[in-house]
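TA notes, week 10

Several of you asked for a full example with nothing omitted. So below is the full record: structure tokens for the whole chain, then the designed sequence directly under it. When grading your own attempts, check the secondary structure regions first.
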């Protein structure tokens, strides 16, 4: 394992932030720390980086006990949400900074920096200043700077959080490709479920300072450990005391065996998909269908319909906790 976190606890004052957290991050993997705000994600990342000391527990990086090592001795690259660029230095000098303070030969620095700028598609921007770059370009520069010193581990704290939705989508695709090229062990914090599912090899779901589940994106989405994970990893609808994904529900204008009666409250067209909002036993619910199927049903607010999980649909009983 590249990173082993064991039984880590961390409190700020009387407020516990991490509670008996243990995770393993495989060498060369891309792992997402996913969860709601205040769940402990950034604190765990900072503990791994050495920017926070755990109250109890240990952190091993590449087999070395790093629990009490300074950040400088952990060979970890850290990228913050807000770039932390040196405004008075060019893109080239920003990326070269870590190598310069390590007194590397100038020829080696130039070779390494230009390789990285080409890798992050900023080779034409080498002589520009951070203020002359877009938000996405500045974040790519920050990643190149973190990679320049060849860290064993790359830690990203909501790296795309300050960017607009379209740029975020472009950069997360780019991050996955970059990782596949450099294979540096990477851990990133996000509260964006789609981002974690699209980019990560492994997702660690954190809430209330505890690890709720660890697994591949498919495992945590298709086989959630509890109702919290199922709700957090995607939309759900409650039918008969069970949580079901809205796209896993059959809806019919006619009564169906095993079906539950519901009343249509609203129909929302979202491009190819249609969201049919319902009331079931006084509670809000919804079903996701295709536009053609919605047109075929011809539903309108006030109609009574029958809903039931598709055969083979994954559901989770609310009594599971």
């Amino acid at each position: 394992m590249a990173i082993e976190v064991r039984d880590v606890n961390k409190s700020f004052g009387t407020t516990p932030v991490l509670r008996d957290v243990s995770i393993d991050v495989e060498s060369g993997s891309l792992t997402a720390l996913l969860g709601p705000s205040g769940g402990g994600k950034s604190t765990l990342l900072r503990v791994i980086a050495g920017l926070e000391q755990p109250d109890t527990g240990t952190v091993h990086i590449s087999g070395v006990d790093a629990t009490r090592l300074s950040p400088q001795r952990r060979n970890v690259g850290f990228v913050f949400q807000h770039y932390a660029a040196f405004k008075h230095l060019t893109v080239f000098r920003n990326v070269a900074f870590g190598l310069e303070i390590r007194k590397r030969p100038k020829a080696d620095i130039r070779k390494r920096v230009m390789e990285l700028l080409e890798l992050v598609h900023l080779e034409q921007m080498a002589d520009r200043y951070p203020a002359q770059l877009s938000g996405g370009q500045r974040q790519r520069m920050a990643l190149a700077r973190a990679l320049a010193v060849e860290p064993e581990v790359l830690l990203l704290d909501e790296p795309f959080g300050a960017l607009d939705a379209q740029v975020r989508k472009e950069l997360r695709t780019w991050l996955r490709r970059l990782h596949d090229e450099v294979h540096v062990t990477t851990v990133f914090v996000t509260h964006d479920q789609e981002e974690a599912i699209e980019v990560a090899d492994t997702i660690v779901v954190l809430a209330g300072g505890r690890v709720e589940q660890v697994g591949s994106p498919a495992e945590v989405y298709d086989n959630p450990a509890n109702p919290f994970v199922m709700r957090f990893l995607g939309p759900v609808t409650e039918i008969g005391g069970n949580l079901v994904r809205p796209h896993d529900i059959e809806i019919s204008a006619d009564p169906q065996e095993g079906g539950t009666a519901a009343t249509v409250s609203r129909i929302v067209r979202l491009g190819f998909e249609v969201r049919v909002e319902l009331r079931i036993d006084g509670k809000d619910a919804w079903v996701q269908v295709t536009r053609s199927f919605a047109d075929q049903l011809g539903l309108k607010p006030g109609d009574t319909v029958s809903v039931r999980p598709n055969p083979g649909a994954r559901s989770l009983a609310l009594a599971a906790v």
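DSSP finds nine helices and 18 strands in the chain. Use that as a sanity check on your answer.
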